[in-house]
Design goal:
The complex is a heterodimer. By secondary structure, chain A is of the alpha/beta class. Chain A has ten helices and eleven strands. Chain A has two domains: 177 residues, P-loop containing nucleotide triphosphate hydrolases (Rossmann fold), CATH 3.40.50.300; 66 residues, no CATH class. Chain A is 38% helix and 23% strand. Chain A has a seven-stranded mixed β-sheet with strand order 1-11-10-4-9-8-7. In chain A, strands 3-2-5-6 form a four-stranded antiparallel β-sheet, covered by helices on one side. In chain A, a hairpin with a 2-residue loop joins strand 10 and strand 11. The radius of gyration of chain A is 20 Å and the shape is globular. Chain B is 86% helix and 0% strand. In chain B, helix 2 packs antiparallel against helix 3 and helix 2 packs parallel to helix 5. Chain B is elongated and about 70 Å long. The model of chain B has no long low-confidence stretch (mean pLDDT 89). The chains are: A alpha/beta, B mainly alpha. Bound molecules: adenosine-5'-triphosphate and magnesium ion.
């Protein structure tokens, strides 16, 4: 898109924001239904803009401990940006992100590196290291953070690759793989250290329906085994129905509604209903 | 309207200044993390060093010989022939090749060949979120990626400068021969004018050129955004900014060197 066109788009968007400022957040009750457990991650009134492009606009969100939480929301609302705030890759312009009681933006570099050891992250595009084959990619966190011997490392790596159905692809380079295979390899790498907090950015995009279903089962199995706070971003309502225990619906940089999954699926909020039903009629249009 | 035109004309300058500030910060970080233990960048340093040599040795050979022969060689020779002073070409080459042209051609070739490769590589990694993934896995990209490139490029540029001035002077020899003159007087005036100050000044200057190129190219790569197109843009900007930086720094360095060592101003 040319710069002029982008500026024009910007202008119309700003204009439309000004037009309906009053009811822009009409559907955002911001209701956080009680979950009965503590929050592992908390967003407190987080604002984040890139240039004039405001992405997070007073986000208040809690991710409960020991549950599989899903963040759902229209494309481009800042879900991936949220994930990057949790691990200190992006800093909020305003507000605070609290992980296990500690403020992430306030951390020193050393503390930050320590805290990140708790995390396993699957980035939206897999983020495999292009210069290493799959085995080395998945082994990387083990070699970086543990003193395990090479044999033990390879045993763990092979087990993880087998779980995601990549047994025979270990010596392939990332650019020789399909998008879905890269996703699955990134998934294996995120889990290889059995982290306390796991962030999956669209683990199911680019996978066929059967593999998506299997991946959902795998997430549940691994969660049952290890516990921990799992955050899954997805556009797939079927996946959400299958594995979500907690759901946050994000739109325009704020929470529309969040709470235990079954309550949200029965919500009477028009936006939440539309989004969770995948309906074309409702508050959300193409814009 | 006027405002937006003004914005469009001046915003790039403002952004450039901000970027220069960021690059200064990156330089500071790079130096401090190069010095602070641990030192995990040895392997990457060696591979970057060899990579730069492999990419640059041939383009640099061709450029320096051709440039030395063409620009200061033939042109200055034509000029000197008028005065019947072709023997002075050797002395001129100290000034031309050692002090200015060799460092310049080295910097241009290294920025264009090795620097762009660095920006493209880091840019692609940034776009694929590899750099984010590294950080989350507890690997500091400055220490593990920028530092080895910074050190390797400084060393390579410094060494290549000597290589470039040898081939540059070879271009001067070719020019002397083309004019049918003997080489003895060329060498005689060359060595009476050359001083160790010239040599170390030249090597120091190019080493710092290497530092500038490395920082600019790493910075542009690590801040690339906007997909594959963004990487292309980053590479383009990296070359432009690296050249500007090198030209500006060259001015400051030459002024300082001449002010602190006035004896090299006097032709002998
Ligand atoms: N580093 C950045 N610099 C500038 N803008 C950014 C940056 N990262 C994200 N954005 C902008 O923030 C907005 C939200 O991006 P984000 O990737 O979080 O969306 P998302 O909710 O994950 O969407 P999707 O579901 O399509 O992945 C986008 O408009 C994007 O252009
Ligand atoms: Mg995303």
């Amino acid at each position: 898109m040319s710069e002029d066109k982008m500026q024009a788009d910007d202008a119309t968007r700003v204009a439309s924001v000004v037009d309906d400022r009053d009811d822009e957040f009409k559907w955002h009750t911001g209701k956080q239904l009680p979950t009965g457990v503590q929050d592992a991650i908390e967003f407190v009134d987080v604002h984040k803009a890139f240039g004039r492009n405001k992405i997070l606009r007073g986000l208040n969100m809690g991710i409960p401990e020991d549950k599989i939480s899903m963040i759902l929301g229209p494309s481009g609302t800042g879900k991936s940006v949220c994930i990057k705030h949790m691990v200190g890759l992006l800093y909020p312009d305003q507000g605070d992100i609290i992980v296990h009681g500690k403020s992430v933006p306030m951390m020193h570099d050393d503390e930050l590196f320590d805290m990140r050891k708790k995390f396993g992250v699957l980035f939206q595009d897999g983020a495999l290291f292009g210069s290493m084959n799959l085995l080395d990619n998945v082994a990387f966190p083990l070699r970086q953070h543990t003193d395990k011997g090479e044999e033990e490392v390879m045993e763990i790596v092979n087990r993880r690759l087998a779980e995601v159905g990549l047994t025979n692809a270990g010596d392939k380079m990332p650019n020789e793989l399909s998008g879905g295979m890269r996703k699955r390899a990134g998934f294996a790498r995120a889990l290889v250290l059995d982290p306390d907090i796991v962030l999956f950015d669209e683990p199911d995009s680019g996978l066929d329906p059967v593999r998506t279903a299997l991946l959902c089962e795998l997430i549940q199995e691994i969660h049952e085994e290890n516990g921990g706070a799992y955050v899954v971003i997805t556009h797939d309502i079927m996946s959400a129905r299958r594995v979500a225990e907690h759901i946050s619906v994000l739109w325009k940089g704020r929470i529309v509604e969040s709470g235990p999954a079954e309550q949200l699926f029965n919500s009477d909020n028009a936006f939440v209903r539309q989004f969770l039903a995948g309906d074309s009629q409702g508050p959300l249009g193409m814009e | 309207m006027v405002r937006s035109v003004a914005d469009r004309a001046f915003l790039p300058t403002k952004n450039l200044l901000e970027e220069v500030g960021d690059m200064m910060i990156l330089t500071g970080k790079t130096i401090s993390s190069a010095l602070r233990p641990p030192y995990p960048y040895g392997g990457e340093f060696v591979s970057q060093f060899l990579f730069a040599i492999k990419l640059c040795w041939f383009p640099l050979l061709v450029s320096t010989v051709a440039f030395g022969f063409g620009a200061p060689g033939l042109q200055a020779a034509n000029f000197l022939v008028i005065f019947g002073a072709l023997d002075r070409l050797g002395g001129f080459f100290v000034l031309a090749s050692i002090r200015e042209f060799a460092p310049f051609v080295t910097a241009i070739v290294l920025a264009g060949v090795a620097g762009t490769a660095i920006t493209a590589d880091l840019g692609a990694r940034k776009i694929r979120e590899e750099l984010d993934a590294l950080q989350v896995l507890g690997v500091d990209p400055v220490k593990n990626l920028v530092v080895p490139r910074f050190l390797a490029l400084m060393l390579v540029t410094g060494l290549f400068n000597i290589y470039a001035l040898i081939f540059g002077v070879f271009g001067g020899i070719l020019a002397t021969l083309t004019n049918g003159a003997p080489l003895g007087p060329f060498w005689a005036t060359f060595f009476t004018n050359a001083s160790t100050t010239d040599l170390w000044g030249s090597v120091l200057k190019t080493t710092l050129f290497g530092a500038i190129i490395a920082i600019v190219c790493c910075y542009k790569g690590m801040t690339a955004s906007g997909g594959a197109e963004g990487v292309g843009r980053a590479v383009n900007q990296a070359v432009v900014i690296a050249f500007l930086g090198v030209f500006a720094f060259n001015y400051v360095f030459t002024q300082t060197l001449l002010a602190t060592h006035p004896e090299i101003l006097v032709p002998r």
